[in-house]
Amino acid sequence: MTVASTAAGGVMKSRFGTVKGVLFDIDDTLVDLEYSMTTALREVSEHLLPGLDQAGWERFGRIFTHETTHYYDQYLAGELTFNEQRLLRGRAALGHFGIELADGEESHQWLTAYIQKQPSYVKPFPDVLPLLDVLDRAGIPYGAVSNNVHDYQRAKLDGAGLDRVTHLVGTDTLGVAKPNPAIYLEGVRLLGTEASQTLYIGDNLLLDAEGSTSAGLLGVWLNRTAETAADFSGTAVSTLDELVPLFE
Predict the structure, then answer these.
(1) DSSP secondary structure of 118-178
(2) Which of 41, 111, 144, 203 is the most core-located residue (most Cβ within 10 A)?
(3) Domain 33-121 - what CATH class?
(4) CATH topology for 6-32+123-247?
């Protein structure tokens, strides 16, 4: 992506136009949630799947992180608790390999172990801190808008060493989730900027790039995994490093 920009006094001129603030998605944008989930899942499930090869563990992780997201949608809709959707996703992944978690103590122990271990593996991507450093130097305010509740995501950011991301909007802030325009606009309000002068960066094409653009922000798709989207005509980057020159 070729960019040309000037930044001064918290205002940046670029190919996007005037940018005065930046909002980020959190999971798989700022922090590598998929790594933390799959690593913890393997640690708490190896005793149930002895001898499973690397391809099997990759398949196990894929089911949990990508093929059971309808349970997370049910959580967002208020039909399941956060931990209920976790357990259902774990059962689906284990069930693929013929393992059934029994109701009661066995399920409780598996879920408790996962809850305890998963946060310790949450780390920021290597390209996050350099961009935040540049934003700080340029005087550009930034924050995060997430499709999970505020306090859980606050703890996640703090645990990952991202306490400098002080502005945070969760699904319980206004009682809505992405792609409802109100959740992005609340982030804009917290930054004290205008939607048309605020970048929104996230890894989910629909919820982040297209959702924020529909709300009037400058949506950027962080396509870390080189997905193809023939109908997408907006701005995409493969790493946050590509955005650093905008603010230097």
Answers:
(1) GGGG--B-TTHHHHHHHHHHHT--EEEE-SS-HHHHHHHHHHTT-TT--EEE-HHHHS--T
(2) 144
(3) mainly alpha
(4) Rossmann fold (3.40.50)
